[in-house]
Amino acid sequence: MITKQNYHSPKIGFVSLGCPKAGSDSEKMLSKIKAEGYEIAQNYHDSELVIVNTCGFIDSAVEESLDAISEAIDKNGKVIVTGCLGERREVIEKRFDNLLAITGSEAYKEVMDAVHMHAPKPIDPHIDLIPPQGVRLTPKHYAYIKISEGCNHTCTFCIIPSMRGKLVSRPIGEIMQEAENLVRSGVSELIIISQDTSAYGVDMKYRPSFWNGRPIKSDLYHLAKNLSQLGVWVRFHYVYPYPNVDNLITLMAEGNILPYIDVPFQHASPEILKSMKRPANAENNLERIVGWRKICPDIVIRSTFIVGFPGETDEQFENLIEFLEQAKLDRVGCFMYSNVEGAVANTISGQVESDIKQARLDRLMNVQKRISQKKLSEKVGSIQTVIVDEISKDFAVARSYANAPEIDGVIFLENPSGLEAGDMLDVKIKSSEDYDLYAGPK
Ligand code: SF4
Predict the structure, then answer these.
(1) For the chain, percent of residues with pLDDT exceeding 70
(2) What is the structure's pLDDT at 159?
(3) Tell me, what's the pLDDT at 8?
(4) The whole model's pTM is what?
(5) pLDDT tens digits for range 178-200
(6) Does 401 share its domain with 371?
(7) Do 216 and 342 have their domain in common?
(8) Does 195 contact ligand 1 (Cβ within 6 A)?
(9) What share of the chain has pLDDT > 90, as a percent?
């Protein structure tokens, strides 16, 4: 029988320095630590890690704090520094380069995040109904990880920044911990999402955070590099075509992450992109795509477009068609523009008639259908590694690296007997349609 005593509660050491305000902060942190099921250690030796709540008011207080940190490192080794002196990070970093985390005063959440990362939260099956990987709505074998919330851009058709605020990135250590928990729970494919994935870490000036005791820079490249070490498929969505993305493509070429990128271009006419206020609207996207394919010839590029944006002329729409003909993207989604309450674009003159929008959408999708047909027909005869999503009586639905779940085409597998959702296997592509492939045994 499971009893509460079977569960080991990690012990946390705590050193509190400074004024009553700092003391009150310490009480809050200690309460949170206890409420989560940790125990408070009475000595350094029994502690999984030690939190030092510092004071930095006058020189003598700074010295006392630095001495306390030094003692905790000598006697335990795993130390989180918080409090007033934490605001003066450079003073601490000058003396110590081996701390688990440094946070400022009242940074309760950051302190608890660091505690969770280095002394996993105790699980009590009697009260803890949520597993470490969290509650998930996706099948067991793939999962989405949101790496930031909000957005610093002001696209005129979008109200997300006014609803969700400016970009707030999650510390990389927290993301890595979530990813590790998911992989432990059986996930074989991690799908990275956010409003603007290329901007990851900008808001926190790429400040490093800790994972497995190592500091890692919170930027897109290091995120991809570290996720690749978990030994599962890693797929990136909503990446804007900034120059820093080339590093990500290099990781794809080296086989670290899936050579698949979802870049919401939305249009190709420079005037429309400007009117949309799209991020990276001054970039030459065709040149960038050519560059990406040079670095990673197998890359699969997905994008979405909006037709009928206010003021879109026939000529600007033709620009978009010309772009598609040249870019030969692998996957394309398209939407007709429509006003969203509160969006700036509603006030742009030249709203496009709905029958024109519909005709443009149909034309664009026809062009893309032809491109997709040709690209998929070139896959016939090739061997692809696939992951199985669903099984029915006569066939299984699977995907290769080239298909993101729920939005792209699929690969239908004949003879599904013996297969289960989540299985990975090599198959031979036998035939193709507009957006889907058919495969059999290798
Ligand atoms: S990048 Fe543009 S479309 Fe995307 S969330 Fe930000 S403002 Fe909206």
Answers:
(1) 93
(2) 86
(3) 63
(4) 0.72
(5) 999 999 999 999 999 998 999 99
(6) no
(7) yes
(8) yes
(9) 65
Q: Is 77's C-beta closer than 6 angstroms to any atom of ligand 1?
A: no
Model pLDDT, residue 3: 34
The verdict on the CB of residue 160 being under 6 Å from ligand 1 is: yes
Q: Does 110 lie in the same domain as 88? A: yes
The answer to whether residues 334 and 232 belong to one domain is yes
Residue span of the structural domain in which 364 resides: 142-377
Range with the largest mean pLDDT of 43-57, 83-97, 104-118, 356-370: 356-370
Report the chain's mean pLDDT, rounded to a whole number.
89
158 alpha carbon to ligand 1 midpoint, in Å? 6
Residue nearest to atom 1 of ligand 1 (CA): 153
In a domain? residue 84:
yes
280 within ligand 1 shell (Cβ under 6 A):
no
Is residue 437 included in any domain, yes or no? yes
312-323: average pLDDT: 97
How many structural domains compose the chain?
Answer: 3
Final residue belonging to a domain, choices 377, 394, 411 = 377
Among 377, 395, 425, residue at a domain's last position = 377
427 against 282, higher pLDDT: 427
Q: Are residues 50 and 100 in the same domain?
A: yes
**Domain identity same for 214 and 176:** yes
In a domain, 131, yes or no: no
Q: Are residues 364 and 400 in the same domain?
A: no
Cβ of 345 less than 6 Å from ligand 1? no
- H/E/C letters for each residue in the chain? CCCHHHCCCCEEEEEECCCHHHHHHHHHHHHHHHHCCCEECCCCCCCCEEEEEECCCCHHHHHHHHHHHHHHHHHCCCEEEEEHHHHHHHHHHHHCCCCCEECCCCCHHHHHHHHHHHCCCCCCCCCCCCCCCCCCCCCCCEEEEECEECCCCCCCCCCHHHHHCCCEECCHHHHHHHHHHHHHCCCCEEEEECCCHHHCCHHHCCCCEEECCEEECCCHHHHHHHHHCCCCEEEECCCCCCCCHHHHHHHHHCCCCCCEEECCCECCCHHHHHHHCCCCCCCCHHHHHHHHHHHCCCCEEEEEEEECCCCCCHHHHHHHHHHHHHHCCCEEEEEECCCCCCCHHHHCCCCCCHHHHHHHHHHHHHHHHHHHHHHHHCCCCCEEEEEEEEECCCEEEEECCCCCCCCCCCEEEECCCCCCCCCEEEEEEEEECCCCEEEEEC
